[in-house]
Amino acid sequence: MEEKLTYEAAKSELTAISKEIENEEISVDELASKVKRASELIEFCQTKLKNTEAEVNKIISRMENPEN
């Protein structure tokens, strides 16, 4: 995965790949590598969302229970 990849950049790249595939703009020779990249981006986005959710839940929990 690229260094400093952001969720927004990954989502944007994933959207571009999706549009290329839908519009049949990708050659058969490139298709496998684009699908692989899309898979990596999806995994990155899912991980980012899960980590963010966990962090937000932890913050909310501390706000609700400040003595802990």
* Count of DSSP-assigned helices: 2
Shape: rod-shaped
Report low-confidence residues grouped into runs of 5 or more. none
The total of beta strands comes to 0
Q: Percentage of helical residues?
A: over 70%
Largest sheet: none
Query: What structural class is derived from the secondary structure elements?
Result: mainly alpha
Question: pLDDT average, as an integer?
Answer: 92
Strand fraction: under 5%
Order of helices and strands: HH
InterPro entries: Exonuc_VII_S, Exonuc_VII_ssu_sf
EC number: 3.1.11.6
Coiled coil: 7-55
Keywords: Coiled coil, Cytoplasm, Exonuclease, Hydrolase, Nuclease
Short description:
The chain has 68 residues and is mainly α.
Question: In words, what does this structure look like?
Answer:
- The protein is an all-alpha fold and 68 residues long.
- It contains 2 helices and no strands.
- Helix 1 packs antiparallel against helix 2.
- The mean pLDDT is 92.
- This is Exodeoxyribonuclease VII small subunit.
Summary tags:
single chain, 68 residues, mainly alpha
Layout of helices and strands:
Layout (H helix, E strand, L loop, with lengths): L6 H16 L5 H37 L4
Helix pairs in contact: 1-2
